[in-house]
Amino acid sequence: MNESTRHFASEELIRFGSAMFTAHGLPPDDATTVARDLVAADLRGLASHGVARIPIYCKRLRAGAINPTPSIRIEHTAAAVAAIDGDDGIGFIVGHRAMDEAIALARQCGIGMAGIRRSTHYGMAALYVMQALEAGMISMAFTNSSPAMPAWGGRSNFHGAAPLAVGAPGGRHGDYVLDLAMTVIA
């Protein structure tokens, strides 16, 4: 840490982030969810997916790249499978809604799977497995991404980072959460 480092309480950052997202058109509850998730990433040590992304998401909201009030649609394609159309909404809200649906399906069928289309960056993948852990469930969450690394021997980016997270309740040993991506930097 240097002399220019500033510290903020997590609740202050959540309020600030929520105000920024509300000012850019997200409904207040959604704005708070996104801000809380960004702070959670910082608190887990994943600053690349923390509050430093607030300006990026605000720019995308201003540019119309993120639909601030999506009409998220759910189609049940099989007993334990749902297809989620995120209507280009911010990935955090679509991702949590998909995990809610997967949890509900798992309670009914013993397993639940939800696939998402038309969504945007959803932040730290661990958010969604931790959501399932709160429901006492084992889970996996993964997503595609923009090209971030070349194919073996290649010179330009071709493959996405392929982020994935896995969570399992650990009982008295504590929960297990693995969150990773295939790129060197991640």
Q: What portion of the residues fall into strands of 2 or more residues?
A: 15-25%
What is the tally of beta strands?
8
Largest sheet: 3 strands, mixed
Order of helices and strands, N to C? HHHEEHEHEEEEE
Mean pLDDT: 94
Q: Helix count, per DSSP?
A: 5
Major sheet strand order: 1-2-3
Helix coverage percent? 25-40%
Could you tell me how far the N terminus lies from the C terminus, measured between alpha carbons in angstroms? 22 Å
What does the overall shape look like?
Answer: globular
Uncertain stretches of 5 or more adjacent residues = none
Radius of gyration: 17 Å
Content-based structural category = alpha+beta
In a few lines, what is going on in this structure?
This protein has 186 residues and is α+β, with helices and mostly antiparallel strands. Helix content is 37%, strand content 22%.
